[in-house]
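Newbie here. two chains, one complex. Structure please?
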Amino acid sequence: MKILIADDSKFMRIKLRQVCERTKPEEVEEAANGLEALQKCETFKPDLVFMDVTMPQMNGVEATERIKAKYPQIKVVICSAIAGTKMVQEMLEKGADEIIAKPFSDDKVLEVIDMVTRQLQQ
Amino acid sequence: MDARVVNHFIDGAKTVLSNFKMTDFTIGKVSVNEDYCPEEEVNIILGVVGQMQGQIVYGMARDTSLQIVSKMMGGAVVTQLDDLSLSAISELSNMISGQAAAGISQAGVEINITPPLIITGQKIEVHTLKIKSLNIPITTSVGNLIINVALEYNILK
C-alpha cells in the first residue's frame, strides 16, 4: 500500500510515518499542506491519505473534496485535533472515509491501516 | 468571557498531556487578566474564529518546552528548539486547542482555530487583544505551562 501523510506539522508527519512504516507499506510520502497533497495524488498515486484539517495554502476540507472528486478510489482518513467540529463534518460529507482524533494512539492508526488494506483487497 | 469554555481547555490539556505520558501535573487556580502580556520565553499563539473569536496563548520556559518535546518524542534528548522541536511544541498547543474547540463546538458554539504562531526570546513584548482573558496555570514535572484564553462571542455570526 502507498500512503500519503498530509500535515503542516513536521512532528506529526514524522510520528505518523513511524507508525505507518511498521506495517511495511510499499512507500510513504509526505505533504505539508492540502495543495501539495492534491499534487502528490497525481504523481505518487497513494491508496491512503492521512489528512490534517487546518493547513496553510489549502485546508483539508478543500483537499479532500478535490481528491475525492478526481480520485474516488483513494481512501482519505482525517487525522485532526478538531474532530467533532463543522469542518470535520464537512470533510466526511465530501467523502472522507474515517477519522482519527489527535492525539492518537499507534494502535488506532494501525487499526485504520488494517481496515483500509482489507477494503482494498476486496 | 464565558468562563465555561475554560473547562474545555483544562480537559484538552489533561487528555493531551496524558497521551504523551505527562501524567504528573496539577491544574492551578484560574485567574482573570484584564490585559494579558506573555512573560514566558516560549509563547505559542493560536487564533480562534467562528461564533467565538479571540486567541489562545501558551507560555512556558525554554527548558520546559525542551523537556515537553522530549516527552513527546518518547524520551529523546532534546537540547535545542530546532524545526522539529518547534513543530512538536506547536502541535501540542494545536492538539489542546483542538480538543477544546471540539468540546465547545459539541456544546453548540461552532469555532475553529488557526495554525499556531511561535514567538521565542527573552524580554519580548507581545501585546494581545484588549479583552478580558483567563489564565490556566498548569504545573508539570518538567515545569510550568500557562494557557491564556481570550474568547468573546462574535456578535456578527
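Moderator note: The longest helix of chain B spans residues 83-106. Residues 52 and 153 of chain B are 4 Å apart (CA to CA). Thread marked as resolved.
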